[in-house]
Give the backbone structure.
Amino acid sequence: MRYWLMKSEPDVYSIADLARDRHEIWDGVRNYQARNFLRSMTVGDRAFFYHSNTKPPGIVGLMEIVKADIVDPSQFDPHSKYYDPKSNPEDPRWRTVKVGYLATFAAGISLDQLKAQFTPEELGVVRRGNRLSVMPVDEAVAAKLLAIAQQGE
DNA sequence: GCCAACGTTGGC
DNA sequence: GCCAACGTTGGC
């Protein structure tokens, strides 16, 4: 089982939304590097839910991958902001996963805390200028994140 | 294939 | 709202 970090703006889709929905297709990723990470996920992998573009940004919960390598339906929806007219239905360009809700961290782990605890090499999200919305998390880093989240209980 | 212009992300 | 970082687009 591998660990990941996935970003979402809470105004668009938050951990509270996922807690309500229980599971959801992670749509709208339109970056090839992020897509490649999504494609390499397998069922049972876990992902930290990161709130971006909010105060404070940070990790707010945990989810699991419940369905791997699915076609992102929004690429073919002309009314979606994620519509991609160049994507060929015979060979869809954008694939993603379905995620399931596992937990909301009582205290969350703010970006400031993440910067204090991890180097940019250990955790991509603390890297200056990092814009990638899906990234792998080393197992040792994941264990430390879970321990920090537990402390906040 | 280069690169300037442009658009988006996301912290601050 | 600003702006640094950086990916994408399109003219040449």
Q: What stands out?
A: The beta strands of chain A are 3-8, 23-25, 46-51, 58-71, 95-110, 134-137. The helical segments of chain A are 15-21, 32-39, 111-117, 139-151. The two ends of chain A are 25 Å apart (CA to CA). DSSP finds four helices and six strands in chain A.
